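Late entry, written up from scratch paper. The run itself happened at the end of the previous shift, but nothing got recorded in the book at the time, so transcribing now.
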Amino acid sequence: MIEFNNNKLNLLAGALVSLVIVIFFVYIFTSNANDSKLYNVHFKQVNAIKIGQNVYLNGYPIGVVKSTFLTNEDAVAVLAINEDISIPRDSSFSLVTSSLLSESKLLFLNMGIDEDTYKGEEDIYNTALALSLNDLINMLASYIDNK
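Output as recorded:
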């Protein structure tokens, strides 16, 4: 009889822990989805940006890349930025190589000082691309060939 009650207690404790875990994950996913503003950030190329990649401000993640698409003029990364972050209109986004030999890039927000800020659901064209080691070697070779 003691063994039956002990199994019942274990079952109840397991169900309670499982319920807490499910509630935690539901809270995490629903709270993150509603606390961001979307911005369409225009780059010349977004080949190294991955969907779900973090967007950083001073090394701290403030958002993620939701999607990417092409227009006739450029490539666009749709960013979901934490709604607590006000982005001044003179801010810029830059792609920075994660290491000297790596092709992977990190996406950074370089905060401006303008008092007028983006409100969300807007296009941002003030961007900069990082140069990879391959790009630098090609530029150097082109410079040497032209001399």
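The chain has a mean pLDDT of 83.
(Scratch paper discarded after transcription.)
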